[in-house]
């Protein structure tokens, strides 16, 4: 059960295949209605380049079947960039019933036949249904064929056991790759790889449930000169990340232990996202997120004062130290953090983040309350200019109705002159509708600094609490300005 849960997180992180067996097709009646009266094959008369484009958008089986439509189609599938997804080679009933930690019978042989039959190039290849340890000879041959036939997108997942199966070093010869996701492998020793090994065209890299040394992770980033998106999920070893990259735009780390994350020089970095992460430190020294040169960093979070420290230039933000208002990176517009409102030392940090345009706060339960945080606490903070002028959206997740939470919301309501929207997401089992209305009455009747602010209230979809909601696909989507907003 534990292995399946681990794999489910890894599979959830994988990119969707660009082709689907479930794609809707025109009904036969509709197709007949559109058929020309003279019976001439209009589609078959299209140029080869258009027909190859059509074939390349079909699952591999369907692409091969087009050769029986007419002599005009016979050789097209071999000359079209092919999309091979091993899950599409399974019967639907087998695919539904297959356990994540078991081999899918017959898939390895079908993959071998498909890779040998098509001369390339391969538009994308998703291999996620084979227990790779049982097919070591085949996978070495697969990688050689994929490298020779110019695969552009590869998703390569081992179905355990073992969890630490060595990744074939030949993968580093796939020089045409633009997207690569590997899951449930151990990275090879990079110091033994040829000096020419690398991915000169790789723009997106995902490491899911992977064993890796710090030096091997650093090697990967260094050998991907145009890398834009890095995703690390369910890492099997603590993550120590040192970012020096001229191209990286998005880094996501989730369900992983980490030691330190240092953004040394990343001039294009737009977002640094951490979903459900834990400290690997066994002593009082907490891991640190260090922000050096990142002039375009717009999205940051979830920051957890309980777990780690945040270092920005010469300023260290950590629990127990009251930081000045607005010390966060000036370029950051969207910030997310987890706060235990019953822990006074963590609440002291909030003024550091109040110069953000959009602030997500997730309220966490504290095992032991340490110090009162009431409206007087915020009044003594004085007139914080950044609250009055900057904050436009506040999204408060897992609201339980405590006095400390209300005190903070009242402070924002009375001071935030530029506030346009306040969203309160109520914890699933914390308050009845009646109790919620009673508690919010004093907030809605308060003297609001912004007359145009909209207040929205939702019930949390997280029935059992747990970490914040996340979606790695949204996180890497630059058209989505706020990847923490999973309600819209």
UniProtKB/TrEMBL annotation:
Ranges where the FBD domain occurs: 379-424
Ranges for domain F-box/LRR-repeat protein 15/At3g58940/PEG3-like LRR: 140-361
All residue ranges annotated as the F-box domain in the record: 45-81
Superkingdom per UniProt: Eukaryota
Listed InterPro entries: F-box-like_dom_sf (IPR036047), F-box_AtFBL13-like (IPR053781), F-box_dom (IPR001810), F-box_dom-containing (IPR055302), FBD (IPR006566), LRR_dom_sf (IPR032675), LRR_FXL15/At3g58940/PEG3-like (IPR055411)
Designated name of the protein: F-box domain-containing protein
């Amino acid at each position: 059960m534990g292995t399946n849960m681990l794999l489910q997180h890894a599979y959830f992180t994988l990119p969707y295949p660009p082709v689907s067996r479930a794609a809707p097709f025109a009904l036969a009646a509709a197709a007949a209605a559109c058929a020309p009266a003279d019976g001439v094959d209009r589609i078959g008369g299209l140029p080869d380049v258009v027909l190859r484009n059509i074939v390349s958008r079909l699952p591999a089986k369907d692409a091969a079947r087009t050769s029986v439509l007419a002599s005009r189609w016979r050789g097209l599938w071999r000359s079209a960039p092919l999309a091979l997804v091993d899950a599409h080679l399974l019967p639907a009933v087998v695919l539904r019933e297959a356990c994540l930690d078991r081999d899918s019978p017959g898939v390895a042989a079908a993959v071998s036949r498909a890779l040998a039959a098509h001369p390339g190039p391969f538009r994308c290849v998703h291999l996620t249904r084979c227990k790779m340890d049982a097919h070591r000879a085949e996978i070495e041959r697969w990688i050689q064929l994929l490298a020779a036939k110019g695969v552009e997108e590869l998703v390569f997942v081992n179905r355990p056991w073992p969890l630490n199966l060595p990744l074939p070093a030949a993968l580093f010869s796939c020089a045409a790759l633009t997207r690569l996701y590997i899951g449930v492998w151990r990275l090879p020793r990079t110091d033994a790889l040829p000096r020419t090994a690398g991915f000169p065209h790789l723009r997106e890299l995902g490491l899911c449930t992977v064993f890796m040394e710090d030096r091997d992770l650093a090697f990967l980033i260094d050998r991907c000169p145009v890398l834009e998106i890095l995703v690390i999920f369910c890492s099997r070893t603590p993550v120590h990340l040192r970012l020096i990259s001229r191209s990286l735009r998005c880094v996501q780390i989730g369900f992983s232990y980490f030691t330190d994350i240092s953004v040394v020089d990343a001039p294009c970095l737009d977002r640094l996202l951490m979903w459900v992460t834990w400290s690997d430190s066994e002593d009082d020294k907490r891991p640190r997120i260090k922000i050096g040169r990142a002039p375009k960093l717009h999205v940051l979070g979830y920051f957890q004062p309980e777990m780690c420290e945040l270092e920005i230039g010469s300023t260290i933000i950590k629990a127990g130290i009251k930081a000045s208002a607005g010390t966060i990176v000036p370029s950051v517009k969207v910030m997310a953090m987890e706060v235990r409102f019953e822990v006074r030392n963590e609440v002291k940090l909030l003024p550091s983040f109040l110069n953000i345009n959009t602030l997500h706060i997730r309220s966490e339960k504290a095992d032991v309350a340490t110090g009162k945080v009431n409206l007087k606490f915020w009044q003594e903070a004085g007139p914080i200019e950044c609250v009055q002028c900057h904050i436009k959206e506040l999204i408060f997740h897992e609201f339980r109705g405590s006095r400390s939470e209300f005190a903070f919301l009242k402070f924002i309501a009375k001071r935030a002159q530029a506030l346009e929207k306040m969203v309160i997401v109520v914890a699933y089992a914390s308050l009845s509708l009646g109790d919620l209305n009673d508690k919010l009455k004093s907030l809605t009747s308060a003297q609001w600094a912004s007359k145009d602010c909209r207040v929205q209230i939702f019930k949390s979809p997280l029935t059992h609490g747990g970490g914040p909601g996340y979606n790695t696909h949204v996180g890497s989507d630059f058209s989505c300005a706020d990847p923490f907003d999973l309600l819209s």
